Amino acid sequence: MTSSSTLPALAGRHCHNVVNPFHSTHYFAPEFAAELATVGLENRSAGYFAARSAAMGAVGPGTITATFYNFNHELIARHVPHIWSVTTPEAVLEARLRAADAALRRLLGDEAVASPEMAEAAELALRATEGCTRHARPLFAAHADLPVPDVPHLAYWHATTLLREHRGDGHLLALLDAELDGLEALVSHHATGRGMSYHGVMTTRGWSEEQWAAAQDRLRGRGLLDAEGELTETGIQLRKDLETATDRLDRAPYEHLGAEGVARLTELAAGFTTAAMDAGAFPAALFGKG
Question: Which InterPro entries does the record associate with it (predicted)?
Fold first, then answer.
């Protein structure tokens, strides 16, 4: 954060870190696969590409590669544009919302879903999204055009989706400025020990072991990785600089909400996200450094 920020240091990042997983829970839920199957998408990768891109319309593989960034274009092209010959973006968006509803009710329980705290979280998160901007943020802008669901837990989920995509769009700008391609971004992030495991990356992003090794070699050539595939001091600093740049590009919604609102949203979001994680929202095999 810059010195002109009205927020405590890293407040926006800390809020994002507990808001983002709430949005992501549905991707790993059995309800997601089941609902996408009802509209003709039984392959999980096809379902993911359709669900996350549907707000942009029936876009082609190039648009998805550009906006998702770290997926192998060849994997995307296996499923897109074929997905739009078996279903429509409108049907996918409806299925995605049904999946989010069912998954959140299962993970959190009806009492939490209907709680005053959930309504408060929705109000705060939606207020934060008022500070977001559409320009150069295609995934955020597309989702911002969708209607806000009527019920609080889905309104909150919608708002977390907007906040997640707003930060994500900005992060891609930072990655481009750092001259990291999609796979190099994955390799360097994996080396931090955060995010998806190697198994998780390789089973979802469509890259081969040879492509992974080649990206490691490119990063070694820049002095960012050592011989064992760990980040060098230069690599560690690059990843820190990336997050700082992303914080700056994502500052607006949290500045708009204000320090008190950000602190309260962080508190509420942490509670809901922790409950979802404790209920098994994320498969352990897909996360960690292994």
Answer: HTH_67
CB 109 within 8 A of CB 39: no
> Which pair of tokens denotes residue 201?
């990356």
pLDDT of 1 higher than 90: no
- The SS3 call for residue 170 is helix
Count CB neighbours of 134 within 10 A: 13
Exposed e or buried b per residue across 29-58, where buried means at least 16 C-beta atoms within 10 angstroms of its C-beta: bebbbebbeebbbebbbbbbbbbbbbbbeb
- H or E segment at 44? helix 44-53
Cβ atoms 227, 261 nearer than 8 A? no
Q: And the tokens for 166? A: 């707003």
What tokens does 158 get?
A: 């919608």
Beta bridge partners of 196: 287
Q: Are 95 and 39 in contact (CB under 8 A)?
A: yes
In this predicted model, what pLDDT tens digit does every residue of 101-155 receive, in sequence order?
A: 999 999 999 999 999 999 999 999 999 999 999 999 999 999 999 999 999 999 9
180: left (phi over 0), alpha (psi -120 to 50) or beta: beta
List the domain boundaries for the chain: 11-281
| Nearest in space to 16 (alpha carbons), one of 190, 266, 185 | 266
Cα–Cα distance measured from residue 224 to residue 180, given in angstroms and rounded to the nearest whole number: 11
Query: 3-class SS at 287?
Result: strand
pTM: 0.95
DSSP, collapsed to helix, strand or coil, labels residue 70 as coil
